[in-house]
Automatic annotation (TrEMBL):
Keywords, alphabetical: Signal
Keyword Signal: yes
Name listed for the protein in its UniProt record: VWFD domain-containing protein
Signal peptide bounds: 1-31
Amino acid sequence: MAHRTSSMIWQAWQAMAILVSLANLAHLARADGDCSKCSSIADWNDKHFESCNCWGDPHVSDSWSVNGRFDFHGLGVYRYAHIDACGGGFKMDAFQCQHRDWKHAAVLFVGIELNNGAQVFVNGTQVSTTGKVSVTGTTGDGDLLQMSNPRDGVNIMSDDSCIRINVNAVNLHGDLHYSNGFKVRVPQDAINDKGICGAAKQWKEHVVRGEGDFIFSIEQWRFMCGMCSALGGLHPLNCPSPYFGQFDASPGGEFLRPFEKENERECVSLHEGDTIDKLQANGQNSVVYAILEKSMSCADFCHDRKSQCVDVRDNQDFAPCSFTDGPSKADCDSTEYYDLNCVCMKPDRSAPGPDRRYVCDDKVDAAGNAFHVEDAVKLCKAKAPFLHRAEWDRQGCKNDDECRIDFILGSCVSDVCNAEPKNRVALAKNAGDQDPRRAPNESAERCVADRLGRELCHELTPDADSCSWNVEGVMQEKAEFCEDHICEDTALLQRFSASQTVTSKDALKCQSDVLCAHESANFT
């Protein structure tokens, strides 16, 4: 019953998120943007721009696609954006890889083209450029650069100031040393339905070497494939196979995973015109060897993955992905078979990843104690103060802002539960950097200039716009009483009414090295 209730809550949340995102559809027909006004707009979050924010494992918390907000765990190179109207022709690809211990993907390389052929490539904290392009936030000389601050990342802007991209990096411990994320800003009247940021059918956005939208060089492609294969996860699409020409997946087949039973697998075509290729119907379907144990049908199997069964083929002698000659005796509704080759239509959202409701099952902390969803929520809200009003299990969000913070909280929980204990704080901080109030080119460090005072006002008063503070006083109190922890843990401050007033240093008292409790709430 608990799982069923959780399922109903989660389905209601997804339905609301999709309804909210439908407002974006009207924009997608536009692709003739006026590129003359961008240079006069300083704010990256100005209403003139549409946003596409991708971070974590990976989550798209804003997009101009009909899909709205979603997780996308596609493997290999995917086109995220292709804008012809502004920026001198803007393209962006991301290479996504799966880690051995993860059921999720991570963005490991980002390729960007703009300004009529200039290119920027980001691999972790390393940045390289070709041609004339504005890139800030780096150290080093020449075309090979390093991020000055990985958390802040680098800011890339087209010559007409219409295309703006921030790419950051999260440093991790273990075999996977980092992951990348990005925030894209494009004029509203220039967006289209190309790329993950705008497309309805995500599986169509996979690009392979040799196609026009494939930005990476062959040397970069080989390096990416080799690095990803060494991590031990699913073999990335379109990469050279390390074992006799066999492949793990086809573009858009990620929705089939994770498989629940040993030996289940996706059937991948070895050459054009073979049985699997015909069943795939120009990439619209995925063929999967499913173990049904005479208790379910292919229709059930596909439905459980938010897909629809369109065909079935018998297999030979229980061999996975083998096919009998002639018509199949089974159909989509047959339940009398131990195993079958099911043909499932690819859903538009083709790589949703594991169900978030169960992502913390069987997880432990650094001491070996059970690590639950409640622990993940607490950590996420501590490191991402703007999430203190978000809910993990809200039954439908009221508006887009509420939908956004609920989605980010759910994404953060997914990230920290999926990570090794020593990486959880870094990933929760990364969720904190998705604060929609912060422009992508603004520093992620809360202790820069007067940002700490502004953050505390938002956290401690219901009317933050009327809240004022003394910059020197706030920073002095931070330094004397809370050291640096207040900059990362403001969500742990107690919240009081706006009628209360902070008048002295005694207003802040650190009760531990990470917990600062406010005895009163309003800065004057």
